[in-house]
Amino acid sequence: MITKCLFPAAGYGTRFLPATKAMPKEMLPIVNKPLIQYGVEEAIEAGLRNIGFISGRGKRAIEDHFDISYELEHQIQGTPKEALLSQIRSVIDECIFSYTRQIEMNGLGHAILTGESLIGEEPFAVLLADDFCVHDDGAGVLKQMVALYEKHQCSIVAIEEIPRDQTENYGVVAGKEIDEGIYQIEAMVEKPKPEDAPSNLAIIGRYILTPDIFQIIRDTPPGRGGEVQITDAIATQAKNGKVLAYKFKGNRFDCGRIDGFVQATNYVYENYYSQGGNYPDGQV
């Protein structure tokens, strides 16, 4: 029922300068695979094979990565290195990739609205590659959320519990728990101070949204930081109907920060590559 996934990827990645001066932050590798490829593999596992990128200046490397490099393949043809391209070739063969450009950085809400032409009038997922999610014993986060959407047919945000003193870094939700780990949202606040936060349930970079969100974003005035916040738009959607928050199964690493990126790299290396294997396809 859901076939499309948007990847907002227009940010500058300033926390990783100078590495991101000429390279998209989404192409930073966790061991030997870029963050953005892990995200696309998670989407594929969930059955989402129409992949839309919201890109910007200096992001050409993402397009090149999800394309065939005939010169490279010719050079390594018939060598053991040829097998190293098997995962990305499988991704290229399975997906349809579309691209549009966010002309100005004006918040996540604005980035998602920029992708409207890639989505049309149908529900869709949004994945932020900075949030590296793993679930070694079962389905990835998006697959869990797609199953939940098939039951409830409404917008869904992924959440996790965080320490109270970190609420200023996240959108925070509050609501009534209607099933184990599933909340019907009653309030959403973008980056509240700890004393103003309605809970310690923070939104992470996985969303399923119904197409009415586009008009709601258009009608949403700039919020915190003068940007169009997707949190504000979803809060309006929750007031007018039903939006769920889902406490996903698995672990998340904030790869938008250096410490989280290093933790994710160590986790993947220690649990997979150091044992002579690869990270299992579709698990992140």
What is the makeup of the main sheet? 5 strands, mixed, barrel
Oligomeric status of the shown chains?
single chain
Structural class label: alpha/beta
Listing every helix as H and every strand as E from the N terminus to the C terminus, the arrangement reads EEEHEHHHEHHEEHEEEEHHEEH
Number of separate strands: 13
Number of domain modules: 1
C-alpha Rg (nearest Å): 19 Å
Query: What percentage of residues falls in helices of 4 or more residues?
Result: 25-40%
Describe the structure.
With 284 residues, the protein is an alpha/beta fold. 31% of the residues lie in helices and 25% in strands. It has helices at 35-45, 60-65, 70-76, 86-94, 108-114, 116-119, 141-152, 213-218, 230-240, 258-271; strands spanning 4-8, 29-30, 33-34, 50-55, 96-101, 124-127, 131-134, 155-161, 171-179, 182-190, 201-209, 243-247, 251-254. The strands form three sheets. It has a five-stranded mixed barrel. The protein has a two-stranded antiparallel sheet with strand order 2-3. The protein has a two-stranded antiparallel sheet with strand order 7-13. Helix 5 (108-114) packs across helix 9 (230-240).
Brief synopsis:
The protein is α/β, with parallel strands linked by helices and 284 residues long. It is 31% helix and 25% strand. The strands form 3 sheets. A 5-stranded mixed beta barrel has the order 8-11-9-10-12.
Features:
284 residues; alpha/beta; five-stranded mixed barrel; two-stranded antiparallel ribbon
Topology (elements, then pairings):
Blueprint: E1 4-8, E2 29-30, E3 33-34, H1 35-45, E4 50-55, H2 60-65, H3 70-76, H4 86-94, E5 96-101, H5 108-114, H6 116-119, E6 124-127, E7 131-134, H7 141-152, E8 155-161, E9 171-179, E10 182-190, E11 201-209, H8 213-218, H9 230-240, E12 243-247, E13 251-254, H10 258-271
Parallel strand pairs: 1-4, 1-6, 4-5, 8-12
Antiparallel strand pairs: 2-3, 6-11, 7-13, 8-11, 9-10, 9-11, 10-12
